[in-house]
Amino acid sequence: MAQGEALVIFTPSGKRGLVPVGTPVLDAARRLGVDLDSVCGGRGICSKCQCTPAYGSFPKHGVTVAEGALSPMNAVERRYDEKRGLKPGRRLGCQAQILADVVIDVPPESQLHRQVVRKAAEARAVEMDPATRLVMVEVAEPDMHAPSGDLERLNAALGAQWDVAPATAPLAVLAGLQQALRKGGWQVTVALHQGHSDAAPCLVDVWPGFFEGPLFGLAIDLGSTTIAAHLTDLTTGEVRASAGVMNPQIRFGEDLMSRVSYAMMNPGGAADMTAAVRAALNDLAHGLAAEAGVEPRAIVEAVLVCNPVMHHLALGIDPVELGQAPFALATSDAVEIAAADLGLVSINPAARAYVLPMIAGHVGADAAAVALSEAPEQSDDLVLIVDVGTNAEIILGNRARVLACSSPTGPAFEGAQISAGQRAAPGAIERVRIDPATKEPRFRVIGCDLWSDEPGFAEAVGAGGVTGICGSGIIEAVAEMRMAGLIDASGLVGSAAATGSARVVPEGRTHSYVLHDARASGGPLIAVTQGDIRAIQLAKSALYAGARLLMDRIGVDRVDRVVLAGAFGAHVSPLHAMVLGMIPDVPLDHVRSAGNAAGTGARIALCSRAARRLIEMNVRRIEKVETAIEPRFQEHFVAANALPHAVDPFAELARVAPLPVVDFGAGAADGTRRRRRRS
Amino acid sequence: MAQGEALVIFTPSGKRGLVPVGTPVLDAARRLGVDLDSVCGGRGICSKCQCTPAYGSFPKHGVTVAEGALSPMNAVERRYDEKRGLKPGRRLGCQAQILADVVIDVPPESQLHRQVVRKAAEARAVEMDPATRLVMVEVAEPDMHAPSGDLERLNAALGAQWDVAPATAPLAVLAGLQQALRKGGWQVTVALHQGHSDAAPCLVDVWPGFFEGPLFGLAIDLGSTTIAAHLTDLTTGEVRASAGVMNPQIRFGEDLMSRVSYAMMNPGGAADMTAAVRAALNDLAHGLAAEAGVEPRAIVEAVLVCNPVMHHLALGIDPVELGQAPFALATSDAVEIAAADLGLVSINPAARAYVLPMIAGHVGADAAAVALSEAPEQSDDLVLIVDVGTNAEIILGNRARVLACSSPTGPAFEGAQISAGQRAAPGAIERVRIDPATKEPRFRVIGCDLWSDEPGFAEAVGAGGVTGICGSGIIEAVAEMRMAGLIDASGLVGSAAATGSARVVPEGRTHSYVLHDARASGGPLIAVTQGDIRAIQLAKSALYAGARLLMDRIGVDRVDRVVLAGAFGAHVSPLHAMVLGMIPDVPLDHVRSAGNAAGTGARIALCSRAARRLIEMNVRRIEKVETAIEPRFQEHFVAANALPHAVDPFAELARVAPLPVVDFGAGAADGTRRRRRRS
């Protein structure tokens, strides 16, 4: 050790080195590449560089730290401590100087690139590295003898103080620059956007003096039916508020193809749908900011994930090409634009937006977001990920290869096209159990913790009563009917005589199963009809056929595990999904719900530029399978119509839930088909 | 020469080389770096690669060219010749193959980087190299088995066929891409903007199939008083149409400082002025397109030059900082933005705009444009360039160094603040001569070729009659009054008695000189008042003092030549300007008018990316002088009040126009001053 040098060891990184005595801790950290945050650039203002010196003997590090290893608290630190309070033992890294050998702990909140711990063990941890961050700079005052613009001097300061390339400034930011510089006494805090590409950084906003933040971003999952957004703290990665609204495009068409048709049939139709969705996005952003008490100006980024049709409509592109082979996207790469171009004008006017890349004409940025969140390319075993919405995105893969496709399940899984179907809202039946012996049902509704056969249920449900059946409810109902022998493997509902249940009532030439009859008190009759079961069969066949197609490609008959993504995935019971044959047969404990994985992927991309780079690279590697032109899709689709399947054995399922062998004949089914032909 | 090779020599470049027999001329040109244009990329569509083979013996080149050195006209050429007509001897370079040694002449219109010959011998020639150009590409069709976006395949084609980096596409362009590709059978012509910086190229528009163009750009000179724009062909550099309008900001304040005051005193005032000027720019663009019969969509670029206050207001920046020392600009570098951001929405919606860099807080992009046009940094002798508008920009320099300043001349030189002043429009007196013996005036008015003392003048002027006096008219009038002995060196008008002219009439305690009296027929009385002369004296003193300040810096008492820029410079007579002492004393034939040099600079920047690079580099090198803080400015200003000057000898002027020595005493002048104090 040279004279006048001291050894500094940072924990938890373990980075160590010699620095001249008198070096501020922040400088030492920067020199040694230690991740210690700072917004004010060492002016003792932001306190982001707080750290804790450790005293005593550290055999592990081979060092003993004496009291006095750091300089005593100086005036800046004492003032900060008085005004805002330093935690015991904490020091400001920019003020405390290293006087002798020392061990310094950097707490998580002082790490710029802190890890955001994900809940699920399988998923990767995310390191905070958002595209937009706050930095404080001191700008040279104008000099008439060497005239230059305020922006040019700000850029010189950013270069000198933060090693940042010259930033561009949108006109709106430029318009506020001069006042901010003067109000801040030539010190300003800027929100600096540095994308993950080579493009020049961009000023998103400028505040006079020190602006503490935090900055926020919106992670938006734009679905055909619902739009969900998460207001996310860009420092911690925490979600401050979440909200969802119906996609107002529903009035133009229930599913994707009907919206594409609307665009084809109506001049200006695409533009109308674009305007509708943009207005909804903006309202959502506005509402989230209000709900969380966040200044809209602090929301400086948005990340959008969505399927291809939503993508095109949000970007103002007519989706007509997506309605027919070869399903050509206008653009498939990630899109980086001004958030205002997406209609997001209720947040910072210079906020940036990032739209994840597309995988294929039917497999969108939402699937890319799921892939980003679930990381199949890092899985040792073969994982099948299904994200069920109006369209199902299906990803199959492991470290060797990853495949993806999309399958048109339609909205039945969301409670649409179901006779008593409704959205998942209070009053909707979400859980169903049918006693195999008595064939009597019991159920739970959203907003009530009691089962329908428990005392006090009617009071607990309240005046609204039981209103209908939602997606997870209809799936459980059909699966329970199959398990109770009320329907056969072909999906036919047996008559009251054949099933021995008075709950089965005739409806034309088919039968329905009554779950709940409140007609006596002016309420609804909620029954599962033969038509409902056919709708579920069509949807689940499409889903299963897509998964099988990917398995064919890899040449396997089974997968190791299944991940159910989507809000739907969070509510559907793996057992019931498997009874219906929605997913391939695996041990039940190998089925996991990933929650809203697309939304999670959007949040990851919001928090991490590295993640954006990663998914842009990965989508190119994903093998795309187009279900619409695969001859075997139809074959798989037909075979998957049976419950659970006409051919595939479902041995794992049989082990936990043997299904009764019943057959209600073809007569009623024929009748159904004949009626359909006439209608 | 290897077997199977032929020698090809291109004229006028003289570039030569061996190519395999059968090589198309266009390919040979590209291989040898010969400037041969092509938009369609060799498809025989655009005919931009036309060239003329020369036959016979060429001792200079050491080659004899036989008939048959090029392949015979093929079907593509014959079809083109039939449909559109090839000039005799011409061939399509992409079709004609080199079969034996040949000399090929590339006519100017087939050169992509053709030189635009400037009128003035001193100015540099400009090589066409606009930022936006047309290229035709053949794009791969979408493939469901390897899905990618239309934009990504277009970019791949641009890279393969034109060696262009991947281009970004504004949403508006993206929205039209798919239809254009399909309508054009996967061939499209794109307007590709490649700035002079490292930024990625950008698609400005896409046309199905082959779009011949030409593309156009707007060169805009945004002055405090007038806005002039030139619609320029981006292939040839020719101006297709020009137009000018009044700057509507005049209603907020006559000169720059009054507009800055308006912004300071009125909340929203700056925004109102921004909206006004943007609307005017847009109307001007719209009108020019209509006048020239040019489709607005073909106008893909705009270059803006203006002074700093106009610059800030056009960009939507409050100019308040420009109203007070240290005159800090919000930004001084060149600005490259969407033209729509400047309110130019009547041209191509994705058109780009380039605003030249600023020199200093008082010396704007207009002065930079003058420097670009006049190139003082390439001058062997010391040149003084003055661009006279409401503010005068003054540049002095040679190869060694270049200096610049701005001086607040006010609008008197433009006919404002003059009792009978008016804009340069039909009916305005623009030329004045006064007989030194009789003191009788004669004059010419705009819109009439006759002098006022020629027969038929009244009829020729027509019903509108003589309406006032414009900028060049008032300068000539005052200079002629000085030469005729009607005013003395201090600017005082002598009485009728003292001058012996009945045209001098008293006005209060001062005198006026009547140029034209049409009161008998209900017309105006047009006289030059003492106040008019004082206004001209203030203006010319400011101009001269600015020039002297720059001369001080270099340490010279005289300059070698003077260039008068601006519309004003085109109309003012050098002799009269020198009698007034507006400009330093040089031989009269060393004074040249450069016309609208700022507008020319804008056109050069529109046509040449190299010119943009050059001026951005040069403005950094120009030494800036701030007249407002130079102590000697006031001293120079006072000394310059006399006509021509109190101290400087003006020996060259004396040689061609000796001025009478008269002195009309101080009484009247004092009276004027006293009256002013009371008002």
UniProtKB/TrEMBL annotation, chains A, B:
Entry-linked Pfam families: RACo_C_ter (PF14574), RACo_linker (PF17650), Raco_middle (PF17651)
UniProt domain 2Fe-2S ferredoxin-type: residue ranges: 5-110
Taxon lineage: Bacteria, Pseudomonadati, Pseudomonadota, Alphaproteobacteria, Rhodobacterales
InterPro entries to which the protein is assigned, alphabetical: 2Fe-2S_ferredoxin-like_sf, 2Fe-2S_ferredoxin-type, Beta-grasp_dom_sf, Corrinoid_activation_enz, Raco-like_middle, Raco-like_middle_sf, RACo_C, RACo_linker
PANTHER family assigned: IRON-SULFUR CLUSTER PROTEIN (PTHR42895:SF1), IRON-SULFUR CLUSTER-BINDING PROTEIN-RELATED (PTHR42895)
PROSITE patterns assigned: 2FE2S_FER_2 (PS51085)
Domain of life: Bacteria
This protein's name: Uncharacterized 2Fe-2S/4Fe-4S cluster protein (DUF4445 family)
Recorded GO MF terms: iron-sulfur cluster binding
